[in-house]
Amino acid sequence: MKNLNDILASTKVLKWVGEPSVEISDVQFDSRKVTNGSLFVATRGTTVDGHTFITSSVEKGAKAIVCETLPDQLSDAVTYVLVENSSAALGQIASAWYDYPSSSLRLVGVTGTNGKTTIATLLYQLFSRMGYKCGLLSTVRNYVVNDSFPATHTTADSLTINSLLARMVEAGCTFAFMEVSSHSIDQHRIEGLVFEGGVFTNLTRDHLDYHKTFANYLNVKKRFFDSLSEEAFALTNEDDKNGRVMLQNTKAKKLGYSLHTLTDFKTTVLSDGFEGMHLLMNGVEVYVPFIGKFNASNLTAVFGAAVSLGFPKEEVLVHLSALRPVCGRFEPIAAPSGYKAIVDYAHTPDALKNVIDTINEVRCGNGRLITVVGCGGNRDKGKRPMMAQEAVAGSDQVIITSDNPRDEEPQDIINDMLAGLKAGEMSKVITIPDRYQAIKTAALLAQPSDVILIAGKGHEDYQEIKGVKHHFDDHEVVREVMK
């Protein structure tokens, strides 16, 4: 139990109606979870407005309501708290409810279009190897030291975030690393968190179904850096044209990393192959079991963040060479017959181009690149033709298939992708809506020196079709068809 006054200590309240010192048993923003003694925060979602559930929450026993608009009928047994933005208030309330856990951790957020999962996960790996208890909040899994918790979103809701951060504090963690999505920034899910550092990866077309314009998408990402304190660091990718934009208004210490520009953290790729890379990082040679320039950039961000947290570069680089690729991020699987498959999460045109370019740079001989790719349903339709264009431009054979069709018909999504291709490019393309059969066909077509790229789903172990998640794991399917 906590006093409502204490829970709202960091929240700007416009108006109180009722008793401010009521005792609260829990905090909820989902009215279905409200019980006797709850504080219900009525947030406005993209499809549902929590204000419509205030009455039902009171009937279930809620003792206090946080809202942007007071209901017409008020209960004498309930305290109503009027705020400007309920979602922002929820972040501050969640932080207070869990005793401000981010203040007890050295928390680093990673944002951008591509590379967030890899950088956050490798930072977790790195600091764990250096002997620290760490936490990770990511797209793939959430970790509190070695305990794993499922991840449902790139960045969870405010209550879940603070609950996990509180677990980290209880477990004795010193560091925490988290992916910060544009949705979470825009929806105030990270409100109330104290970050010691922020890392920017890159910005390419994504989530325009939500943000509508690229400018909106950029400005949302920038808000994360604008919110950092003077005590924090802001580390940006100077090889991305938007990197410097992120730093324009931040109070944090400004730092850069690059493969091409002389800056705070500079890496040169000396050699690259399927076995790994030989890198020169700030004048020191390092061998890493990663492939591709985009991974060299990710590793430079990891290096830069670790040094920015106060660790000697020599110590960081020793442990950096022992890190391992993240599940579903340019993950190679070798077939007994000689060809290679690469499973990767690439689901934006830029990410797909980077992965294809990397494969083409390191593959040898006369081997072909066979790319299996689709696009998600109920998402940005504008990138669908662009995905097909990138696949065809860099591949010898393309099999266009389903990703997560969600509520759309798979063939409609495929047709949107095909609309981006010219008649002469269609000779490279096969369309197979069934993803299992598409991967199987690629395996049947592959010769010993070929490479198959299976793009779009990476770590995911499901396919979402008509609101139902069916088990589907690209790794499992590849290994099965390889037999």
Describe this structure in words.
The chain is α/β, with parallel strands linked by helices and 483 residues long. It has three domains: 2-97, 3-Layer(aba) Sandwich (Udp-n-acetylmuramoylalanyl-d-glutamate--2,6- Diaminopimelate Ligase, Chain: A, domain 1); 101-320, UDP-N-acetylmuramoyl-L-alanine:D-glutamate ligase, CATH 3.40.1190.10; 331-482, Mur ligase, C-terminal domain (Protein-Tyrosine Phosphatase, Chain A, Alpha-Beta Complex), CATH 3.90.190.20. It is 31% helix and 24% strand. It is built from 15 helices and 26 strands. The strands form five sheets. It has an eleven-stranded mixed beta sheet, sandwiched between helices. It is globular and about 80 Å long.
Rg, nearest Å:
24 Å
Distance between the termini: 57 Å
Q: Describe the biggest sheet?
A: 11 strands, mixed
Please work out how many helical segments DSSP would assign. Answer: 15
Q: What are the low-pLDDT stretches, counting only 5+ consecutive residues below 50?
A: none
Mean pLDDT across every amino acid position: 94
Question: Structurally, how many domains make up the residues?
Answer: 3
